[in-house]
Amino acid sequence: MRRREFMTALGGAVAAWPLAARAQQKAMPVIGFLSGEGRAPEFYRGLSKTGYDEGRNIAIEYRVAKGDYDQLPAMAADLVGRKVDLIAAFGPPAAHVAKGATSTIPIVFISGDPIDEGLIASLAHPGGNLTGVSIITAELMPKRFELLSELVPQSRVFGLLVDPDASNAEAMIRHTQDAARAKGIELHVLKASGISCDEIDTAFATLLKLHAGALVVGTDPLLTLRIPYLVALASHHAIPAMYVSSEFAWPGGLISYGPSLKAAYREAGVSAGKILKGAKPADLPVEQPTKFELVVNLKTAKALGLIVPQAILARADEVIE
């Protein structure tokens, strides 16, 4: 072959190579992050464990309702329209909306009882396009009640704060009422949606009128959005309160008991990474919590004039001093 012909052929091959390579190369996958509350740093750590890092080999489209759940359907529809590769739907409202928006895009959820909530048929074999992490919530209410009653054994009137719109509100009320009845403690159910602080203020005003000696705070995500406000009110009114996670105890909440939310979000990130690598949601069992954290804030206990029983301190995973 003459030199001129060889260089022409070589030039044509070089020019064609990038086009062929681009055609074969898969675009960076995109996760649609759908939440009624906020972002979750531990989710990204879970993704990283499977080799995915935002901005390097994965992109994330964020849609966060910040407590306004009415926005979720439009947000989910937008993500489906953008043809994201996976939807991470955190919280029961977001999970339900995502399920209703698509039956083909894989969904990784974090929810309470996904079977009872109608998200899946089985934890071991979720089927369809959903899998994720189940957080035990309502079933732990008796344990929370018991721990709080140990802290304030002299109190015979308790309050239970729940969001009436929460999917597990009835279960939380039932479990807590059973625990109160077993100990002969009078329980008053107080309701607040968490969207407006006014409803929380009203609930606390009622609590004071009832001369309640303690408060159990329910597990609804909207109440979690009000962590600083709830903790501040309990402190201001000197009401010993039990919370659902360590996120309440660290900023000043008296005591918390529940599954590790950080671990749950990490597990969700790992599941998302597995799906992006080719696993089918239907074949990935829904993960259940394996770690439950009891956290006690001794500084808050001292401010309330409480002596934390040694039995509780011995069981605590973390003691804040």
Summed up:
The chain is α/β, with parallel strands linked by helices and 321 residues long.
Task: Kindly describe this structure.
The chain is an alpha/beta fold. The protein folds into 2 domains: 138 residues, Response regulator (Rossmann fold); 106 residues, Response regulator (Rossmann fold, 3-Layer(aba) Sandwich). The protein is built from 13 helices and 12 strands. A 7-stranded mixed beta sheet has the order 7-6-8-9-10-11-12, with helices on both faces. It has a 5-stranded parallel beta sheet with strand order 2-1-3-4-5, sandwiched between helices. α2 crosses α11, α3 packs across α4 and α5 crosses α6. It starts with a helix and ends with a strand.
Q: Topology of this structure?
A:
Elements: H1 3-24, E1 30-35, H2 41-49, E2 59-64, H3 72-81, E3 86-90, H4 92-101, E4 107-111, E5 130-134, H5 141-151, E6 157-162, H6 169-183, E7 186-191, H7 197-209, E8 214-217, H8 221-225, H9 227-236, E9 241-243, H10 246-249, E10 255-259, H11 261-276, E11 292-297, H12 298-303, H13 310-315, E12 318-320
Parallel strand pairs: 1-2, 1-3, 3-4, 4-5, 6-7, 6-8, 8-9, 9-10, 11-12
Antiparallel strand pairs: 10-11
Helix pairs in contact: 2-11, 3-4, 5-6, 7-9
The CATH architecture of the largest domain can be named as: 3-Layer(aba) Sandwich
Describe the global form.
elongated
Q: Largest beta sheet, briefly?
A: 7 strands, mixed
Low-confidence stretches: 1-25
How many distinct helices?
13
Q: How do the strands of the widest beta sheet line up side by side?
A: 7-6-8-9-10-11-12
Number of strands: 12
CATH H level, superfamily name of the largest domain: Response regulator
CATH topology (level 3) name of the largest domain? Rossmann fold
Task: Compute the number of structural domains.
Answer: 2
